[in-house]
Amino acid sequence: MPASARALAPPLTTRASGILLHPTSIPTHYGIGDLGPAAMHFVDWLADAGQAYWQVLPLGPVDKSFSPYQSPSAFAGNPLLISPDRLQAQGLLTQAECDSIKSDLYRNQLRIPFAEVAARKEPLIRQAAVRLLNRPADDRLKQEYTAFCERSTWLPQFCQFMAAVQATDNTPWPDWPTSLVASQPKAQTEQIAALQFLFFSQWQELRAYALEKGIRLIGDIPIYVAHQSAEVWGAPDLFQLDKSGRPTHVAGVPPDYFSATGQLWNNPLFDWPRHQATGFAWWISRLKQTLELVDVVRLDHFRGFEAYWSVPAGEETAINGSWQLGPGESLFQAFALALGNVSPLPLIAEDLGLITIEVNALRTAIGLPGMKVLQFMLPSEDPFEALTWEENSIVYSGTHDNDTSRSWYEEALKANPWWLERLTPFSNRQLDSIAWDLTALAWASQSRLAIAPLQDVLGLGGEARMNTPGTFGPEATNWQWQYHPEALTAHLSNRLKEVTVFRHRAAATV
Question: What does the alpha-carbon distance between residue 301 and residue 303 come to, in Å, rounded to a whole number?
C-alpha cells in the first residue's frame, strides 16, 4: 500500500462523500470503460472535486445480458474491463493491434454496444494472454502470474468451469457429461487463468493510484450467485439443490416499489445450516477476496441475511414465496473474527425494500451503516429529517436501480405536487437544477457518507438510467450507459468541491 494511503482515515469513520459509477460507463475508444488511462482520469477528477470515495458495481464476469449481478463467478473479475492500452505498455499487444479495435464513434456513444465490443475485444485480450503464457519462466510478468495462480485458491475451479461452459455453449452444468470437465485442454484453462491475472493486476494498479489520490473504493457483493456459476457447480452442497443439481427453491423479493408481482431472481438459495457448520468458510473467502479489490463492501440485499424470500423453483413470479430465517448475527461474528476483529466492519448494509424491526435490529447489533435514498424518502418524509438522520448511514440521491433524479422529478414529483412543497427549502424546483439540488441535500444531511450517481451530478435525464429492475430482453438498455468524454469539466469539479467543502465532507487524512 502506498505511503500516502496509510495516512487516510479508517473507512466509514469520517464525514465524506463520493460518486457511484461503474467502470464500464467510462468512455474509451474501445467501446467500453476499462482499467486504463480513462479510469485514472476519472480518479483525478474525483480528487480535484474533493471526493473521498468511488463506488462501483460488482466486478465479476457478466452474463448474456451483461448484468454484473448475474455472474458465473463470485470470485473472478470481468475480462472485458482489461485495458488494451496497458497491455500494450506491458509488451503484450502492439499499437497496431490496439488501433484495430478502436473507434471515435465508440467514445461518443451514449450506449455501450456490448455484443459488438465483446466480439472485437475478446480475441485481442486472449492474444495478450497467450503471449504472457509464452514468456520465459524468469520473465518478471510471468513470475507475477505464477505467484497469482499459487495464491488464488478459487482459480482452478473457475478455469475448469469456464472452459466447460465455453465447450458446451453455456449448457446448464447439471446436463454436462461426467467426463466433460476433465477433458478440457490445459491450454484453455491456462488462458482463462492468464486473463484473470491481467484483470487483477490492472485493478490493483488502479486501486493503488486511487489511494495515492486519497480515493477509497466501495465494492458490491450480491447476496446470491447464479446457478450457472463456478461456485454452485463446485460446491452444490452449499445450496438448496436437488440430487440432479437443480434448485429446489430460488431467490427473489415479494411485490415492492419496483414490481407488483415481486422480483423473481431465480438464483439458488443458500443452505445456511451447511454454511454455519463450516464456520461460514465460503462466505469468509468471498469477503476477503472482495476486500483485496476494494476498501469497503456494500452487501446487496442485506435483509436476506436476517430472513430471505424463498420461492419454489418453477414459479413464474415471486408472489408465491415465503420468508425463511437467514444466518443472522452469527455470520457477521464470523466475519469480524476472520478480519481480526476490525471495528467498524468495512461493510455497508443495503437495507432497502421491506425492512422489518428484526432487520434493523440485526444491522444495529453489528454496527453497520444502512442506506437512505432520497428518491424513496422524499414522498413520505420531510427533507428536514435528513439534517437529523443518524450519522451511521449512507445517503444517496438515487442508486443504480433508480431513475436519474432529473427523470424522477419529471415522472414522479411533477405528478404529485404535494411532494414538491417538501423540497421548497432546498430547491427552486426547476428541471435543470433538480438533480443538483437533491445531491446538495444529500451532502447537507447528517449521514456520515453521501453518494450520488454521476448521472445526478451531471444532471442527466432518463436516457442515462443504468438499470430498470425487472426488465429483460432486446428492448432493455440496462448496464449500457456511459458518460460523454467531455462531461467531466473543471467547472463541474469546482462546483462539487465547493459544496463538499461547505458541508464539511472534503477528503481528509489523519
Answer: 5
